[in-house]
Amino acid sequence: MSGHTKNSKVISNKTSCIFCKIVRGEIPADKIYEDENCLSFLDITPINPGHTLLIPKKHYENLYDLPDETLAKLAPVIKKIAIAVKKGTHADGINIGMNNESAAGQIVTHAHFHIMPRFADDGYHLWHGKSYSKGESQKTADKIKKNL
Ligand code: 5GP
Ligand code: ZN
After folding, report:
1. Which atom of ligand 1 lies nearest, measured to the CA of 106?
2. Which one in 5, 41, 81, 89 has a CA-CA gap of 20 to 30 Å to 31?
3. Which of 57, 56, 48 has its CA nearest to residue 95?
4. Is 4 helix (H, G, I), strand (E, B) or coil?
């Protein structure tokens, strides 16, 4: 993975990576949870107050690079934090998100999960669903399955 993004920012290097700096304690963050593998802290520009990030302590750029064993260790922490965010913010619901590559909105190229509290009246909407033409969904499913 190159770490190049369309908006020409390259933040993949461990030395300059903002999230690695948070792991090393070089810049402050409102920490939520930490263990030997991961660190969780509040997003500095939240979708709603309590929007939390979970990162592996080691620098990986995105989901594709993240070793399966690290992902397996992070998964139960996502759940633990989601429940704590929901209770702590009295959220009506929680979105879990991960942006991978700039086309998908990734700005910080240190793999991270977003744990986002949602409220019934917060005004955000998810995507508008497109529709498939005849036979397109089966062809699409086949193309994806070939790559498993
Ligand atoms: P991405 O778009 O890469 O998935 O999301 C990166 C997130 O990191 C953004 O929501 C942004 O607000 C957050 N972020 C960027 N820089 C910092 C920082 O220095 N501290 C904290 N706590 N969050 C940051
Ligand atoms: Zn990093």
Report:
1. 3
2. 5
3. 48
4. strand
